[in-house]
Write a structure and sequence with these properties.
Layout: E1 6-8, H1 27-38, E2 47-49, H2 56-59, H3 65-77, H4 97-115, E3 120-123, H5 144-154, E4 159-163, H6 170-175, E5 182-189, E6 213-218, H7 224-242, E7 246-250, H8 268-281, E8 286-289, H9 296-310, H10 321-329, H11 352-364
Parallel strand pairs: 1-2, 1-3, 3-8, 4-5, 4-7, 5-6, 7-8
């Protein structure tokens, strides 16, 4: 790395609350930062900054004025607007909802600008890939990713966007479906009853963007070995062939086997191995954001491992007592940062249907030809 890595976070995030019964608890961000600090992962040469509050003019590069007005009224007057997704069970109206969302966009946008200077950047508060131009969706109010990617493209960058959240990046796909400058790759759980219902194998882009939108739908209970096999056959060759100016990763961790909202079976080992592999292969600009993850202990453990890989630090496996006091209350009583080995103890055979899906994607994408 030619430039010092950058970590973006603000304690202000802890001032906001989706509500007592909402799955997205912002305390997970503080818990992650505390754990990173324990392991010394935020000490120099790592630079840390707080996200700026993005200007509304910048939000208009993606969001509609009428929606921003509704979001402002939701914050100032507590007004719901179900037609725009505001005041629903997934996207409640709460004090500071617009301010929080502007901080999230500001952090990802500033991080992307700095990543393009040749840095590795992680903004754990970012990753809101479901917000659409005219409505809130899936716990997301403003789409920090799309706005940041638009900025990168406008600066002449080609971007490889890799999303490993268990939920498909529907709004990001929609925004760049016809644009070959952004190669969108998403690994996600997929099924008729799973949100958001998009991200089928056949959704590969249109027009000039045909073959530059690659979805790998995953069946319930997909394990580490299968996902790693798919990763190896897609990401490294795409990085080599596409030669992006920016690697942008959405690191949602709700594919973890203990996540309460999903049905995949991924462990901490996959996330750490993937981050280590990317860190060894990719030495250009790298922007990373958070995303899903609804077991807050696993969120903190995995993002700590990922950041350790990004900055080239070996992270000890023993958790601090301060973390264990919280994790035990959350139902995790293990003393380790990493998960124990899988229950089977033997490598699993990669399902034939996964091999066929990967083969389909390699055939659909011109970069493999």
């Amino acid at each position: 790395m030619e430039r010092d890595p950058l970590f973006i976070h603000t304690p202000r995030y802890s001032q906001f609350d989706y509500g007592r019964d909402h799955p997205l608890r912002l305390f997970r961000l503080k818990l992650t930062v505390d754990l990173m600090e324990h392991y010394g992962l935020l000490k120099p040469p790592v630079e840390t900054i707080e996200p700026p509050l993005v200007e509304e003019e910048t939000l208009l590069t993606y969001h509609q004025p009428s929606y921003l007005e509704a979001l402002r009224k939701a914050e100032e007057e507590g007004l719901a607007n179900p037609a725009m997704g505001l005041g629903t069970q997934d996207n409640p109206v709460f004090p500071g909802v617009y301010t929080l969302s502007r901080l999230v966009v500001g952090g990802t946008l500033e991080g992307t600008r700095r990543a393009l200077e040749g840095r590795r950047v992680f903004h754990i508060g970012g990753g809101m890939h479901h917000a659409h131009p005219e409505r809130a969706e899936g716990f997301c109010y403003l789409n920090d990713i799309v706005i940041a990617l638009k900025e990168a493209v406008n600066r002449g960058a080609r971007v490889l966007y890799f999303d490993i959240d268990a939920h498909h990046c529907d709004a990001v796909q929609e925004a760049f479906y016809e644009d070959p400058r952004v190669l969108v790759v998403s690994f996600h759980q997929y099924g008729p009853d799973f949100y958001p219902g998009t991200g089928s194998l056949e959704e590969t882009g249109e027009g000039e963007g045909r073959g530059y939108n690659l979805n790998l739908p995953l069946d319930r209970y997909t394990e580490d070995e299968t996902l790693w096999w798919a990763y190896e056959h897609l990401l490294p060759p795409l990085l080599e062939a596409f030669k992006p100016d920016l690697l942008f990763t959405q690191l949602g961790v709700d594919a973890h086997r203990d996540d309460p909202l999903t049905s995949l079976f991924i462990s901490t080992h996959f996330y750490e191995r993937m981050a280590q592999d990317l860190a060894s292969r990719w030495h250009g600009p790298w922007m990373a954001v958070g995303g899903g993850g609804y077991d807050l202990v696993n969120v903190a453990r995995i993002w700590t491992l990922v950041w350790g890989a990004m900055v080239g630090r070996e992270v000890p496996d023993t958790l601090p007592q301060s973390f264990l006091r919280v994790s035990i209350m959350e139902g995790y009583d293990g003393p380790n940062l990493r998960d124990l080995p899988g229950w089977s103890g033997t490598p699993q055979e990669v399902p034939q249907e996964v091999k066929e899906r990967v083969a389909f994607l390699r055939e659909a994408c011109p970069l493999f030809q």
